[in-house]
Write a structure and sequence with these properties.
heterodimer; A: about 575 residues; mainly alpha; three-stranded mixed β-sheet; two-stranded antiparallel sheet; 23 helices; 7 strands; about 65% helix; B: about 500 residues
Chain lengths: ~575, ~500
């Protein structure tokens, strides 16, 4: 059971998606149950996975020894004649960098399934697409073969396109195509680097077996592997025996790069007058920054969020954005640590800028969903800032921030969805004094807002605090980003307090007033189903705000290994 | 015949005729096509009414027997041969291409059968006879290594294409056919002129001969470049790449969908083969063909994709997309490595499957709406979800996104060009690599148009006909491989790897 745990987590939703697609229309009421059960199973298995996760495993994140729950089977390999061959593996595994993301994805997808309960039209299409999306999101976080990762990464675009474009709001078509095109630009940049990378990286174990340095793949010892690496470096292995690899863990180890390849660390190759490695790093960075999204690649996000139906906004903000951050950690930073150091000021600057810019935009919004969307841009800026710091605190903070933002933004979009469900109107100016009519709802909203603005006691505070600790330490520790960047970024905290408190005051306090009186009758307080979504989310937000160790213990060793990679590269 | 005349020794004539009759086995697929053509012609003359079943069975049997012969040739292949007095080359490449051509031809006929009454190819024999003439032409194109043979085979294909475009009545068809003919005639003339220069330089038409290669080495760069550009221009016309692409949108829109599915695949791949053969014999360093073809590839991708954005008709959109795909096909050729050749063939084979699949689905939709205009397809996907999903998969495959084989095809050609760039350090290769991949984004925008109209829009138009089971079956047969091969592209690559490209 446990040895294929990750596969079960990915493929249960996929299977459920097929079941939904094949069930006849008269069983339409069962679709949502199937979705909830399937994603519930995935969630349970993810929790099992997290509880089995051994947080004592240490090591650099570029060796497979630091991974757990590994599943590795050769998927296909293609012969390139005199150029050797390349092989693609079905390779899954978790370490501290992705275990929290897996858990987050399972939680948010499950909540999203509950919030899809009220979807009325074209239910078959909706639920099979939603399950398909879930499967590819979960797969994206645990895939450690670049080909497989890319498959999941790309495959989530299509269901998302249809989910926004068919079930979305008034400008759904525009939002759907904009989302798809923006993200595809990012994917293509990633693909460009992927092609360059797999042609530069070889798999030492398979190459050794091919070249006859050792008997079989399973018998390879670490000495033999370094023997292969030395032989390849000396040019003693003929190119026909080289097995190129998409393995993302191998790609992070400079010993696995072919000596004459463009992207190896010693390569002097230039692309457009710049070092090829720098350009590759930038391409990956921009590719994932679009997904994150960071200024100036964020413009798809407000449109997509506003037009998407509530559950899809939840999934979009809750996890899809995190793939951007996770992708940077796993690929751009891990593969090219020297370039990451070189460009850290740029990353830090855009992180800082996104924080301020997103917050200022949020302050100006009239639509509550747009306000939340821009607050996401602002909060994702912390992820960039933390990563750019290249310190343990900064990177842990970035991951913690992603996890906590996943929970908080899911809550926020659900909150906006509750209001929209009842009145079909999201403009802040149309409401006043809602606290009188909807006291319970007001409590939930206040908690979500306070959590999001980083009040101590909620998970958002821990993430932001650690990012700042890391960012301030960076200048003296590794010199990645200057001190003034976190100083300026603190302004973002003030601004976010500003827009949340102001919104709270405008919509919930004062005299009760709704612009369209006809809507008044619909304004009923939270239902049981809504409690079912809010209570666990808020409980987790508070839990991870008070006991950050629960999550930090899981990730700390891997973050340590990851930052060591950076430090080694800088020396 | 040229090479026969060139041999001065008259007493060899008998030997040569003997050799020719030995070569007949190599030409068995062509002979099978010709026999089918003659049978179709005879049947058409003898019977006056209800010819459909007879014509269809002759056509399918003809292609089936050709396919069987080719399979036999493939499995029993021993060595590359120059046949028919060095006019043609019998090698694995040509046998492989003819295999996929006969499959593509059969699928084209199936599209004709599924497209309904209006444009039925099987009602009269003429169009089928001409279509088989086209098959003969593309078969010869895959083997031609003599400039005269290259010209003749291209002309056979072209003339059949002109007639097929205009054979059914209608003003638009006449216009398209005339346009096609005029462009075709000019490009043929230019090509012939180029060939005459090459003949003047070298004194031989056989591109594989030593005299040709050494002759070219003695010519100065400018006249050589002019002559080669003119010659290659004629081939690029059939490939439908920029700047010889102007005919394709009109022709694609006017001609019956089944015919277009064949136009957009078989002659393109055959032309690519010709280009490959010509390029391969050019001595290195004489003429920077990589630059020229690289520019052609980039221009085709950009022009094809951007023009496709504005189209309002599915067939016209696919015409522009096929211009863009001509560019992608050239990418593998420009890489000029072993991996480049293999990936080019892989792309070509997959392009054939994807494109024929796309046209099949459009033919099915067309039967229900009466036209291929996007406006008439509003909301069809909601009425026929199964066909709608198939359309989405084909369009995603044409864009080149996973999980379809279109992604593997793109990955392989662009890997090949990156690999070539690493070795050759020629900056045009980098440009092709980056601009080619970025073009995918543009391509996505218009490929999603069809799903967009099928699913996002709601239509008032009543559907002429309910979806039928055979449509679903044929659709699935065409689309399922696109998904399966994504997970198992190994076997085709291994087949292609066994092909020996060396001359």
């Amino acid at each position: 059971m446990t040895e294929h745990l990750l596969s079960y987590i990915i493929f249960i939703p996929l299977l459920a998606s097929l079941v939904v697609a094949l069930l006849p229309k008269r069983l339409a009421d069962s679709y949502r149950l199937i979705a909830i059960v399937a994603l519930g199973l995935s969630l349970v298995l993810s929790v099992v996975g997290v509880s089995l996760f051994d947080s004592d495993v240490t090591g650099l994140t570029n060796s497979e020894a630091s991974l757990q729950m590994i599943e590795k089977v050769e998927w296909f390999s293609i012969n390139l004649g005199s150029l050797g061959r390349f092989s693609v593996d079905y390779f899954l595994g978790v370490d501290g960098l992705n275990v929290s993301m897996l858990l987050l994805a399972a939680i948010v997808l499950f909540i999203g399934a509950i919030s899809s309960w009220n979807i009325k039209n074209k239910r078959k299409g909706y639920f099979s697409l939603y399950l398909l999306l879930s499967s590819s999101v979960l797969g994206c976080f645990v895939a450690l073969d670049f080909f497989l990762f890319y498959l999941f990464f790309e495959f989530m675009l299509l269901p998302m396109y249809f989910l926004i474009g068919i079930w979305g709001g008034p400008r759904k078509e525009y939002a759907a195509i904009k989302f798809f095109l923006y993200t595809l630009v990012g994917s293509i940049l990633i693909l460009i680097v992927m092609i360059g990378l797999y042609n530069s990286v070889y798999d030492p174990i398979k190459t050794g077996a091919e070249a006859g340095i050792f008997e079989s793949i399973s018998s390879a010892t670490s000495d033999q592997i370094s023997e292969v690496q030395t032989q390849v470096k000396l040019g003693n292995v003929s190119s026909e025996n080289i097995v190129k690899s998409f393995n993302m863990i191998s790609m992070a180890n400079e010993d696995n790069y072919l000596p004459d390849s463009f992207l190896s660390k010693s390569s002097a190759a230039q692309v457009f007058g710049q070092s090829a490695r720098w350009m590759a790093f930038l391409a990956l960075l921009i590719g994932f920054a679009i997904k994150l999204p960071a200024f100036p690649f964020h413009t798809w996000l407000p449109d997509a969020h506003v037009e998407a139906p509530t559950p899809i906004s939840v999934v979009l903000a809750g996890i899809l954005l995190k793939i951007g951050g996770y992708g940077m950690i796993r690929t751009a930073f891990s593969f090219f640590p020297d370039s990451a150091y070189h460009y850290s000021w740029l990353i830090g600057f855009f992180g800082m800028f996104s924080i301020i810019y997103g917050a200022l935009n949020a302050l100006a919004q009239k639509d509550i969903k747009k306000l939340i969307a821009y607050s996401s841009v602002s909060h994702m800026g912390f992820v960039l800032l933390g990563l750019a710091a290249l310190t343990v605190e900064g990177v842990s903070g970035a991951i913690y921030q992603m996890f906590s933002h996943g929970l908080i933004s899911a809550t926020l979009f659900l909150v906006a969805g509750v209001l929209y469900d009842r009145t079909q109107n999201r403009l802040i100016e149309n409401y006043g004094g809602l606290a009188h009519q909807l006291p319970k709802y007001t409590v939930v909203v206040s908690i979500a807002f306070f959590a999001s603005l980083g009040l101590p006691g909620f998970s958002g505070f821990i993430g932001e605090l650690m990012v700042f600790l890391g960012a301030f330490k960076s200048a003296s520790f590794i010199g990645a980003i200057p001190m003034w960047m976190p100083v300026v970024a603190t302004l973002g905290l003030v601004l976010s307090a500003g827009y949340y408190l102001w919104t709270l005051q405008r919509m919930f306090f004062g005299k009760y007033w709704v612009k369209d009186a006809a809507r008044h009758d619909n304004l009923k307080d939270l239902t049981l189903r809504e409690y079912l979504m809010f209570v666990p989310l808020i409980a987790m937000i508070i839990w991870f705000g008070i006991f950050p160790g629960t999550l930090l213990d899981l990730i700390s060793n891997s973050v340590e290994g990851f930052t060591q990679l950076m430090v080694q590269a800088v020396k | 015949m040229i090479s026969l005349l060139q041999s001065n020794n008259a007493s060899d004539l008998k030997d040569q005729l003997g050799n020719l009759s030995e070569d007949v086995w190599m030409l068995a697929p062509e002979i099978s096509v010709v026999i089918a053509l003659l049978l179709l012609l005879g049947f058409d003359l003898l019977f006056k009414k209800n010819k459909e079943i007879g014509l269809a069975s002759i056509a399918f049997c003809g292609l089936a027997s050709t396919f069987v012969i080719l399979t036999f040739q493939w499995t029993n292949f021993s060595t590359d041969l120059m046949i028919m007095g060095n006019l043609l080359r019998y090698d694995q490449l040509s046998v492989f291409l003819k295999l996929i051509f006969s499959l593509g031809g059969a699928l084209g006929l199936i599209i004709a059968a599924r497209n309904g009454e209006k444009n039925n190819l099987f009602q009269t024999g003429e169009s089928l006879v001409i279509l088989f003439g086209l098959f003969l032409g593309v078969f010869l194109m895959t083997m031609a290594t003599n400039l005269l043979m290259i010209y003749l085979s291209i002309e056979v294909v072209s003339i059949c294409s002109y007639m097929l475009t205009g054979i059914l009545k209608g003003k638009r068809k006449a216009e398209a056919a005339l346009k096609y003919l005029l462009f075709g005639a000019v490009s043929s003339a230019v090509m012939l002129y180029g060939i005459s220069w090459l003949y003047g330089f070298t004194g031989t038409l056989d591109v594989t001969s030593q005299a040709f290669i050494s002759g070219l080495s003695e010519v100065s760069v400018l006249p050589l470049t002019i002559a080669l550009i003119m010659t290659i221009g004629g081939i690029i016309f059939k490939l439908g790449a920029v700047p010889f692409h102007i005919w394709s949108p009109d022709v694609y829109q006017a001609a019956p969908t089944a015919i277009v599915s064949i136009f957009s695949t078989l002659p393109k791949l055959a032309a690519l083969t010709l280009l490959f053969r010509v390029i391969n014999v050019l001595p290195a360093g004489l003429f920077d063909w990589q630059l020229i073809l690289g520019v052609v590839a980039i221009a085709s991708m950009i022009f094809g994709n951007f023009s496709a954005l504005w189209q309002k008709d599915a067939k016209r959109m696919l015409a522009y997309s096929s211009i863009a795909h001509a560019g992608f096909l050239l990418v593998g050729l420009v890489a000029y490595t072993e991996a480049g050749n293999t990936s080019m063939l892989f792309y070509g084979a997959m392009y054939l499957v994807m494109n024929v699949g796309a046209f099949l689905l459009i033919a099915i939709l067309e039967r229900r709406t009466g036209s291929a205009a996007f406006d008439d397809m509003r909301g069809l996907g909601m009425k026929m979800p199964f066909l709608g999903i198939l359309v989405v998969i084909v369009m995603i495959a044409l864009t080149g996104l996973p999980p379809t084989v279109g992604f593997n095809a793109k990955l392989y050609v662009f890997s090949a060009i990156w690999e070539a760039y690493q070795v050759q350090n020629n900056s045009i290769l980098l440009w092709v690599f980056i601009l080619g991949l970025l073009n995918t984004v543009v391509a996505l925008f218009y490929y999603l148009k069809l799903p967009y109209y099928l699913f996002f829009k709601t239509g008032e138009k009543t559907v002429l006909e309910k979806s039928s089971i055979p449509d679903h079956i044929w659709g699935t047969i065409m689309v399922l491989p696109l998904l399966i091969w994504f997970f198992q592209s190994e076997w085709l690559m291994n087949v292609l790897n066994s092909i020996n490209f060396v001359f």
